[in-house]
Each structure stands twice: as structure tokens, then as C-alpha cells.
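G., the chain you wanted modeled:
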Amino acid sequence: MIRTATRNDIPALIALGASMYQESRYAENSPFDALKCADLADHLINADAGCVLVAEHNEQIIGACLEICVFA
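Predicted structure as C-alpha cells:
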């Protein structure tokens, strides 16, 4: 199921992000900043131009999409 994220989802989003970050090339050069990511997720969840969707399976978040909608 795909749904709009809430603030309650932020810990799961951070765990998912940390896991993906460790698999990226960025992990070799800099540490994962969970607080910065939590602040960004919170901002996007509450911003008019923000959109955060989560994918759930058996009530567990297994994926997410975070974006900023920019219109010219």
C-alpha cells in the first residue's frame, strides 16, 4: 500500500535512509546525518510544496519517495 507519510513515520524513514546510505558511495566519505534527514522529512511532510509517500507491506515501511514540487 502506498500512502502519504506522517510525522510518526519519520523514525522508519530515517532507518530506511540510513540503510540505503550505507550502500551508497557517499558512505565512504561522510557519515549519515540522521538529525538532518529527520528535519528534512519533517519539513517536506508539512510543507505545501513537499510530498512524502511511503510504501507499506504488512504494516512495515519498505520504501519511500520524498520530493519538493517546484512550479515555474
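Residues 16 and 53 are 13 Å apart (CA to CA).

Shout if anything looks off.
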